[in-house]
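In the design runs reported in the main text, the only information available to the sequence generator was the tokenized backbone. The following block is the verbatim input for one such run; it is reproduced so that readers can re-run the procedure and compare outputs position by position.
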């Protein structure tokens, strides 16, 4: 090939590839469009009209329902066929007597009623797991109750069942030194500091490894009884500080009453000290001491008197104030001889 002479191998490959691509393109065009794309002949359809139309029979509807045979000399343009309008027969014609301008009016809306809410399904309650029975059982405590502030430690015994030698008593979550008496009894000593305040205290039995235990049990620590029903309203002081008399009012009693040192008032409180400001009493059962301050009430004259009550004292004016406290007023009396029972100061 003369046109490839002097060309490099790379240029020859490019020229041959371009020629092949052109041939492939021509074949594709021929397959798509046929000969017409390359200038081939086409077939043309021609029609030939007749100068005179062929007469035909046509049936027309007229008011007399008569058939008219058209004149052969008439052309198609001269044929006149009347239009018959029959209301009610056609689908597009309105009904007679109907107002086509009338519009639809919807009925008034029904009042809105909220739907009835569907109740939620009942919650599924899981079956509770039964609590296992504790290996140790506590039946009772001895003592069952104790007063707060009791002086000194006290012995606590726990009775029950199935106790083992390695069981320990836990008082208010504190491990106590425990004595194994038998499988039904354990004992310990509780110090007074652990019952300084009133309220229930928890007691349980448990082994050090926690494998064996008991249910909780409560020791009731009660507040000690107080002389709240007594009111100290006045006193009569003697010369030698013995036989001093304190006067009280008590709930449920209509008149005041007097009491001397070592007398018991309120059923359980012994008088251990009398002064012009207060009386100290001691619980004869528990040993607790309580102070009862003197109650002062303003009198009708405006002065302040102890409780508004002035005890009768022969030889002393009724308006004379109570004697002031003496330096050693609180010392216990040596005797209760009646040599100074007269009320002269």
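Verbatim output:
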């Amino acid at each position: 090939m003369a046109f490839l002479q002097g060309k490099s191998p790379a240029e020859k490959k490019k020229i041959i590839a371009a020629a092949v691509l052109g041939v492939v393109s021509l074949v594709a065009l021929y397959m798509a469009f046929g000969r017409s794309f390359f200038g081939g002949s086409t077939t043309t359809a021609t029609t030939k009209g007749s100068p005179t139309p062929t007469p035909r029979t046509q049936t027309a509807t007229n008011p007399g329902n008569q058939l008219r045979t058209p004149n052969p000399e008439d052309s198609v343009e001269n044929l006149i066929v009347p239009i018959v309008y029959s209301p009610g027969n056609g689908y597009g014609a309105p009904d007679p007597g109907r107002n086509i301008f009338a519009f639809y009016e919807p009925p008034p809306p029904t009042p809105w009623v909220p739907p009835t809410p569907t109740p939620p399904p009942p919650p599924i309650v899981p079956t509770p797991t039964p609590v296992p029975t504790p290996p140790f059982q506590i039946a009772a405590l001895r003592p069952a109750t104790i007063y707060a502030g009791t002086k000194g430690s006290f012995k606590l015994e726990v009775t029950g069942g199935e106790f083992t030698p390695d069981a320990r008593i836990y008082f208010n979550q504190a491990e106590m030194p425990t004595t194994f008496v038998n499988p039904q009894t354990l004992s310990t000593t509780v110090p007074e500091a652990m019952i300084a305040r009133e309220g229930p205290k928890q007691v349980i039995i448990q082994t050090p490894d926690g494998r064996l235990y008991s249910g909780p049990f409560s020791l009731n620590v009660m507040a000690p009884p107080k002389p709240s029903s007594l009111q100290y309203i006045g006193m009569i002081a003697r010369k030698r500080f013995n036989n001093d008399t304190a006067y009280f009012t008590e709930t449920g009693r209509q008149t005041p009453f007097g009491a001397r040192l070592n007398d018991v008032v309120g059923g359980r409180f012994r008088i251990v000290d009398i002064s012009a400001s207060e009386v100290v009493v001691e619980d004869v059962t528990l040993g607790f001491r309580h102070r009862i301050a003197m109650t002062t009430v303003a009198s009708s004259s405006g002065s302040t008197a102890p409780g508004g009550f002035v005890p009768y004292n022969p030889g002393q004016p009724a308006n004379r104030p109570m004697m002031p406290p003496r330096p050693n007023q609180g010392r216990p009396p040596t005797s209760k001889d009646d040599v100074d029972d007269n009320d002269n100061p």
